[in-house]
Amino acid sequence: MNFHSHKTQLIATAVGASLATAGLLTAYNSYTRRERRRNLNDEVIRSIAAKESSNAPTPPPEVAQEVRVSAYDEDLIREQLARNYAFFGDDGMSKIRKGRVVIIGCGGVGSWAAVMLARSGVSYIRLVDFDYVTLSSLNRHATAGLTDVGTPKVNTIEKTLKKIARWVEVDSRIEIWRKEEGGLLLEGADWVLDAIDNIQTKVDLLKYCHDHGLKVFSSMGASAKCDPTRIQISDISNTIYDPLARSVRRRLRLLGVTSGIPVVYSTEVPGDVKLLPLPDEEFEKGPVKELGVFDDFRVRILPVLGPLPCIFGLHASTYILCELAGKPILNPLAIRGRKKLYERLLRDLLHRETKLTGQVINKLPIDEEDVSLIFEDIHRGRSIIPPHNVPARPVLLRWDVSRPLTVDNCVVMEYGEAEKHSKACGTQEEGRFVDPRTIWGDEVQEIVDRRAEEVRRERQWVM
């Protein structure tokens, strides 16, 4: 054997030994990871069993969280959250893992938000809901199964979260949030997620958070909707076509809160889906609102397509995670050009009023906020003229030209309808006025009267 052949053999032997060593190390590391995971699984099972069988007092959340995290292998945490670390970085994930989120309402929206917050690293989650799992909950709830029917919703979520992330401290409260003592359930929260169905309780919670400087994200109406492409995040002041958002927005406005609350909602105009009917015998028991366990909580419910509240919950958790990480969604996309639409509607109304009065008008008694109220809240973005289509070219104009222009004497029409109305009703310069009911009929006049009364009721509240 010559020198070169001997050298080649030595190199081959060394390479083979190195590969064998690397293989052994890889196998050993894989084995130890499997063992740690197996031990972790056993620990989780023992922990859940101990929790269910123990009546010992629960330690403060801060203490429990520190113990839980320190008892968990940090390498495993980072491995489980590897994709999140890649996205947010060490600094962002440090903030998320210190985050404390309180979820009020743990149904279809809240349960999915809780699962994704836990999967993404949030280490403290408080769940608040008085309700129990029913069979009908199973079409949309993130964690409930058949064996959970009849048990508290918060308990089913807690059980699942502990299987997902061993380090997460879950504080389950089988309670209803009430403004009189609301601070107790919101204590220590970095973010509050409102997933409440009841309008008044939702408004009370949002008002409380606003007044006390608590960051809150609110979920609007996922019921009776089916188009996921219409779901988006915006400020409460920019919501349209969502009946629940409209009611919440108007009530908050009366309480002095006009903006500053991010929400997830759908721009899908509700179709023909209505409240499920109640049997006659239920009405015979007394007023429907008294049939529930709590005042003002719905007895009849809207049908829900399961995926929609799930998507709402995922939107909510995404927004909160980005905020916690210090990488917020800087400009949540409101409806494109909405402000420009209001400006155009106001400018067009000014032009029409100038033609109607025959005088130069510099300022109308209606501003952009009034335009939003008229167009979005009162007329729901639809023409006053049957079949009440969404106008391709919407116009605001005075309904009864013999009366001054006011919010309750201003309606929405399609451009062609508005032109017909203006020509038929006359102008002040001509000195003739035509009753609009002779043009559109009594049915339309009744709608106008109802909506005018709606405006007046709201204005009384504001004053």
Automatic annotation (TrEMBL):
Bilayer topology term: Multi-pass membrane protein
A GO biological-process term: cyclic threonylcarbamoyladenosine biosynthetic process
Subcellular location: Mitochondrion membrane; Mitochondrion outer membrane
Residue ranges annotated for the THIF-type NAD/FAD binding fold domain, each copy included: 82-327
InterPro entries assigned: ThiF/MoeB/HesA, ThiF_NAD_FAD-bd, Ubiquitin-activating_enz
Keywords carried by this UniProt record: ATP-binding, Ligase, Membrane, Mitochondrion, Mitochondrion outer membrane, Nucleotide-binding, Transmembrane, Transmembrane helix
GO molecular function annotation: ATP binding; tRNA threonylcarbamoyladenosine dehydratase; ubiquitin-like modifier activating enzyme activity
GO cellular component: mitochondrial outer membrane
Family of the protein in this entry: Belongs to the HesA/MoeB/ThiF family.
Function: Catalyzes the ATP-dependent dehydration of threonylcarbamoyladenosine at position 37 (t(6)A37) to form cyclic t(6)A37 (ct(6)A37) in tRNAs that read codons beginning with adenine.
Protein's UniProt name: THIF-type NAD/FAD binding fold domain-containing protein
Organism: Collybia nuda
The organism's taxonomic lineage, starting at the top: Eukaryota, Fungi, Dikarya, Basidiomycota, Agaricomycotina
